[in-house]
Amino acid sequence: MYASRNLSKCTKDCLCLFVCPTGATNTETGQIDSSRCLDGCRLCVDACPSKAIFLVMDEYPEPAPKDAASASKMMDLCSSRFAQEKAAAAIAASSDEPGLKKLTEALRQSLRITAEDCAREAGFMLPQSEPVRALMEELESS
Ligand code: SF4
Ligand code: SF4
Question: 2-56 sits in which CATH class?
Fold first, then answer.
């Protein structure tokens, strides 16, 4: 296990530099030097006022294989959630009543989240950001 720093949260030059017994937190790049980290002793994690440091496992267990029947049920549920999302979006788009518009829009977003959870549970990776989408398209075309 080793410590890693989220640079976008780090407010720079403070407690982790003083508590780390090996100096692993004090580097030119701003990244923690994992080769000097003492198996995630977490002194820096607990000291950081910005919650910018987290621990990373050296190895992660293999995910359990997906049972085909359960994955298929999850995809059925996912499809029905997407159909419901479309219906909620249509109501939101056609309604002139602000309350109903807000409610159906909230419902649409909630249905999208549950549909995506079902797809993930069925074993699919979702391209939810441009970099991930670009990577998946690159993999598909190679
Ligand atoms: S977990 Fe411990 S050894 Fe590793 S960087 Fe943080 S304070 Fe240093
Ligand atoms: S203690 Fe947290 S905020 Fe301060 S320098 Fe370290 S990582 Fe950045």
Answer: alpha beta
